[in-house]
Design brief:
heterodimer, A: Aspartate Aminotransferase, domain 1, 2 domains, seven-stranded mixed sheet, four-stranded antiparallel sheet, 15 strands, B: alpha/beta, Aspartate Aminotransferase, domain 2, globular
Chain lengths: ~450, ~500
């Protein structure tokens, strides 16, 4: 399939090569030759192919449910202009822009992405993107290790559990220690022990997420900043919900030296988890430690402004085992989607959208906590997610199952990661969450309370 | 709130060949598109201390956005616009039906935390793709978790590290053997798990020599990382003996799947003795490269390494699929969520479109196209290792450089002037002035003939008018770029004018 060769072409080409048959051409030693046909069903004409693959898509009933799932992947509005531009074959079917003279368009788009990430995070520079938010954190932590020569990472337990798990995977490879700071009663990182723990200058990095995994605003106060600076620790700010950058204080504003995060919310589909687009931004001092591709603006031989991949001396194909990372792709196409998204919505649109997220989440929290027995688990202000405690005697799992039978996905069960939060559901609302969706959820919760006799009158 | 009003005089922008302004130099504050309804103010919900002070992004009309990015797209080479013989990158046609399938709402809008029972179709895609990959490459199991080839390489080495740790050989086995015909990422991946790299020089036939290999094998050997066919496009015909020797020394064999397009239906890494492998499905299985990602890098293992695969893996219980996270010996997750799922849909679509026989044919014709070009190019460029190649081959411009001063780089730039993308140049490192050419199976004989004719003309021009090639490219948006300036005076972002 997708091969243009006629029988006559093959004959003629084999003659030029001087081989009698295709089988002779590809012959390998008997000891490793595959003697049986591949156990893959016969090829399908395109009509049947579409029917076959569509049948898989049709079995994903979740997409028809009313959903309050967030926790690192968000349902946001994607203006049709984003896929219309991104699906242009000139972008979609290009390779990494090694030949800069014929790749100026993509290089400029990535330069614009780097600029957008700097403007959004307040940092000095950003790379051309990495795989996703979790790997951005792991790579950011490695930058801190390389910068300080220290071998331990201190991470808030309110950082996305999947991000922390990936950090541990990478840390096992490099034999780094990962330690955690607990969550305080209000739902933010407990910084009471921070100064004492940083004092012995053992930690390469301190990692905190804003809004944190519970949706709460969680930025270190001035005192923490001083302890971080005094100990020479690299502060890493994680943003797992990029939409928040349209409203909340930047990582730079609380003193982050490295800002990492996930850009999926900017025009990239949820797609059952990928591909997404991670970003890494940093202060100037980390320029030669930042991993992955970087696009720079220079001049061509005629003195004309021109873009090119640059600072490649950091990269795997030049430095080999001394490279700062083994990354050789970026998520160029997802970064392009995000760049087109940001260009289309602009400052006005992004702020408007971020504000709607806050407004919808507060409407959600208000409606859900109006149902007897449901309360806010934490008191800290939130962006677009809220941790809701279910009635005493019930569990998050029970409530979520009961909602599911009513075609509602009520959120994620925090007990999945936090043993003491098995009674808490993390609920998300975005600009796409309607009043009707919220009413459906709160109505269902009220009915479930009654049905299960959960709250004594 | 927005970027300041710095819009440029646009008259010059519309002249043919003119540079495109940055998006930040276009538009006016307040020129917003109405995607979102009005509502209440942020300050009603959040304390001022939590909010950002400014948001200096440009506001552009949707037409301006479309025009800007359309103009950028036109300043870009792609498979859709021309022949892309980039060695080891497998720039084959990316069928549009793959994208149509990946964008079905049932896939596109599925949340990664959707309950398994309501995501059976997605889990079925992952399970079936994984099974087909096992059949095609002869491994016991794959994980679709890693995000790209280099990421899968890292996963594989973490698996090796976990395996040796459990055998009690963790501190002893710390070296990785990498032949000079392997891919560039291998040493960097090894460093990320704390392994030391031993580079292995290939023999006069361009293969790993068994004698040289045995000299570096020892009880410190963890992994031997190879690609077969190697980056010279040659099949390692002693692969079985190599694998036996590595196994006898207690090491593991790792297969870098970047060159898998040469093999389907003909030979399988699993049968060659490889314990670990990765695939670049964005190469072999026609997923668009998207300008350098997202990739998709399944990691596969033989039976004795299954328990170490990254989490989650898709489990089948009767007729029901589930994501399995409960794997105590796993190296853990490699990324935020389960896989680059949209790419798994594309790869499955491609496999079902071709079927087993079709994939076999794909590899045969990829090898035919490479040999056809090689047979013609050897008339006018030196082709070291002059024998039947697999999906790619290398030529060297060293003689030409000696005669005329024209280097591989100049040939690459001259090809751009003729509307062809350059081959991979200066890789593999063991061939001086290397041009590594991989045509792929989706190119027609006429396109290959045109490419060969242009390449021949360039080599002839080198002998008559070398300067013309040193000046190339002259027809592109910009000429050769001052890389030194880019690195010495880094300009990595647009900055608000003071």
């Amino acid at each position: 399939m997708y091969t243009p060769h006629t029988a006559a072409d093959i004959r003629e080409m084999l003659d030029v090569v001087g081989v009698a048959s295709l089988d002779d051409l590809v012959r390998v030693p008997d000891s490793v030759a595959l003697r049986t046909p591949l156990e893959v069903p016969p090829g399908l004409p395109e009509i049947e192919l579409q029917q076959t693959i569509s049948a898989y898509a049709n079995r994903n009933d979740a997409v028809r449910y009313t959903s309050f799932l967030g926790a690192g992947s968000y349902r946001h509005y994607v203006p049709p202009v984003v896929p219309a531009i991104a699906m242009r074959g000139e972008f979609l079917t290009a390779y990494t822009p090694y030949q800069a003279e014929v790749s100026q368009g993509y290089l400029q788009a990535i330069y614009e992405w780097q600029s957008y990430i700097c403007l959004l995070t307040g940092m000095d520079l950003a790379n051309a993107s990495v795989y996703d938010g979790a790997t951005a954190l792991a790579e950011g932590a490695i930058m801190a290790v390389n910068a300080t020569g220290r071998r331990a990472i201190l991470v808030s337990a309110a950082v996305h559990p999947n991000y922390r798990a990936v950090l541990r995977t990478y840390a096992r490879g490099l034999e780094l220690d990962v330690e955690e700071l607990p969550v305080a009663a209000g739902g933010t990182t407990d910084l009471a022990s921070l100064e004492a723990r940083l004092a012995d200058k053992r930690f390469a990095a301190f990692v905190v997420q804003n809004p944190n995994f519970f949706g709460a605003i969680d930025t270190p106060p001035e005192a923490a900043r001083q302890a971080i600076e005094a100990s020479g620790t690299v502060a890493i700010g994680v943003t797992a919900e990029a939409m928040a950058l349209g409203a909340l204080a930047t990582p730079a504003s609380w003193g982050a030296h490295i800002a990492v995060g996930e850009g999926q919310s900017f025009g990239v589909a949820m797609a059952y988890g990928g591909p997404y687009v991670g970003f890494i931004a940093a202060n100037k001092e980390h320029m030669r430690r930042i991993p992955g591709r970087l696009v720079g603006r220079s001049l061509d031989v005629h003195g004309k402004s021109a873009y090119t991949l640059t600072l490649q001396a950091r990269e795997q194909h030049i430095r080999r085992e001394k490279a700062t990372s083994n990354i050789c792709t970026n998520q160029a196409h997802c970064a392009l989607c995000a760049t087109v998204y940001l260009a289309a919505v602009g400052a006005e649109g992004l702020r408007r959208c971020a504000t709607l997220n806050v407004e919808r989440a507060h409407a959600l929290a208000e409606a859900v906590t109006a149902v007897p027995g449901f309360t806010r688990r934490f008191s800290a202000p939130v962006f677009n997610e809220v941790a809701i405690r279910v009635p005493l005697g019930s569990s998050a799992a029970t409530i979520l199952d009961a909602l599911q039978s009513r075609e509602i996905l009520g959120g994620v069960n925090l007990g999945r990661w936090y043993g003491d939060l098995a009674d808490t559901i993390l609920m998300n609302a975005t600009e796409l969450t309607t009043n009707a969706d919220i009413a459906k959820l709160s109505g269902a919760l009220a009915a479930i309370v009654k049905e299960h006799n959960l709250v004594r009158a | 709130m927005s970027a300041p009003d710095i819009a440029k005089d646009l008259r010059e922008r519309f002249e043919p060949g003119a540079a495109e302004p940055l998006i930040f130099e276009l538009g006016h504050p307040g020129r917003a598109n109405t995607y979102f309804p009005d509502g209440r103010a942020l300050e009603e919900f959040l304390p001022a201390s939590a909010l950002r002070e400014e948001l200096p992004l440009p506001d552009n009309s949707e037409l301006e956005v479309v025009r800007h990015f359309t103009r950028l797209s036109q300043r870009n080479f792609s498979i859709d616009t021309g022949f892309y013989p980039l060695g080891s990158c497998t720039m084959k046609y990316n069928p549009r039906v793959n994208d149509t399938m990946a964008n079905l709402p049932g896939f596109r809008d599925l949340h990664p935390f959707a309950p398994d029972a309501l995501a059976q179709g997605a889990l079925g895609v992952m399970y079936d793709l994984e099974r087909y990959l096992c059949a095609i490459f002869g491994m016991a199991q794959f994980s679709l978790n890693p995000a790209a080839g280099a990421h899968a390489e890292l996963a594989a080495l973490l698996i090796a590290k976990a395996y040796f740790a459990r055998k009690g050989e963790g501190t002893q086995r710390t070296t990785v053997i990498v032949p000079d015909t392997a891919h560039g990422t291998n040493p960097a991946s090894a460093a990320m798990v704390g392994y030391k790299v031993i580079s292995l020089k290939s023999d006069e036939r361009g293969r790993v020599g068994l004698g040289a290999l045995k000299e570096v094998l020892g009880d410190d050997t963890a992994v031997c990382m190879m690609t077969n066919p190697n980056t010279l496009g040659l099949f390692e015909d002693h692969i079985k003996e190599i694998a036996d020797a590595v196994h006898a020394a207690g090491g593991l064999m790792y297969y870098d799947g970047a060159n898998a397009n040469a093999l389907m239906g003909n030979a399988r890494p699993g049968d060659m003795g490889f314990d670990l492998m990765h695939l670049n499905t964005h190469k072999t299985f026609s997923i668009p490269h998207g300008g350098g990602g997202a990739g998709h890098g399944p990691v596969g293992v033989a039976a004795h390494l299954v328990e170490f695969l990254p989490t989650p893996v898709v489990r089948k219980d009767g007729e029901t699929f589930a994501l399995d996270f409960d794997r105590p010996d796993s190296i853990g997750p490699m990324r935020s969520f389960w896989s680059n799922f949209a790419h798994a849909v594309r790869a499955l679509t491609y496999i079902r479109a071709n079927g087993g026989n079709g994939l076999t044919k794909v590899s045969q014709l990829a090898v035919l196209n490479a040999n056809y070009v090689r047979a013609k190019v050897r008339d006018f460029l030196h082709t070291p290792y002059d024998e039947t190649c697999r999906h790619e081959f290398v030529a060297s411009a060293q003689d030409l450089k000696r005669e005329t001063g024209v280097r591989a780089l100049d040939i690459a730039k001259a090809l751009l002037d003729h509307g062809f993308h350059a081959p991979t140049v200066y890789f593999p490192l063991l061939v001086p002035e290397c041009l590594m050419i991989e045509p792929t199976e989706t190119e027609s004989k006429e396109t290959l003939d045109a490419f060969v004719a242009v390449l021949r003309e360039i080599v002839e021009t080198a002998k008559s008018d070398a300067q013309a090639l040193l000046d190339a490219p002259v027809t592109t948006q910009v000429g050769r770029i001052d890389e030194t300036r880019a690195a010495r005076q880094p300009d990595l972002r647009w900055t608000l004018p003071a």
